[in-house]
Write a structure and sequence with these properties.
alpha+beta, Hypothetical upf0131 protein ytfp, five-stranded mixed beta barrel, GGCT-like_sf, AIG2-like_dom
Length: 140
């Protein structure tokens, strides 16, 4: 099944100013806009965060739209970065379609979001350290 060419919602090391933004996104995007994901909570990980789907939470990040010619390569590169393979029980993240809200005008946009895989999410809910602000930048 081919993935729909949706934008990506990024909330951690892929955000502007972070190392993975330069490595993976620079020169491959058409636009980047501040946005938020409702129904998820941010947890601190080993150098990167996890968004865990939970009612009442909000995660802050950017909505990134890839250049059409860069999309297939970028999708594959982000899947590798996030250690995501469809149906693999060892996934750290799952790539899911979710509605995100643009900060500028409140409009909703369907996007790919990498959220914590079920086993990782369960471990984080039980023993993880939430980032209360929902903003990876604010953790510092």
């Amino acid at each position: 099944m081919t993935a729909l060419p949706l934008p990506f919602f990024v909330y951690g090391t892929l955000r502007p100013g972070e190392a993975n933004h330069d490595l993976f996104l620079r020169g491959r995007t058409r636009s980047e806009h501040p946005a938020r994901l409702s129904g998820a909570r941010l947890y601190d990980g080993p150098g990167y965060p996890y968004a865990v789907e939970e009612r009442g939470g909000v995660v802050h990040g950017e909505l990134v739209t890839a250049l059409p010619e860069a999309y297939p390569e970028l999708l594959a590169a982000l899947d590798r970065l996030e250690e995501y393979a469809p149906g693999d029980a060892r996934n750290l993240y799952e790539r899911v379609r979710r509605e995100v809200t643009l900060d500028a005008d409140g409009s909703g946009v369907r996007a790919w979001v990498y959220v914590a895989a079920p086993t990782v999410a369960a471990r984080l809910r039980a023993h993880g350290r939430p980032i209360e602000s929902g903003d990876w930048f604010a953790r510092r």
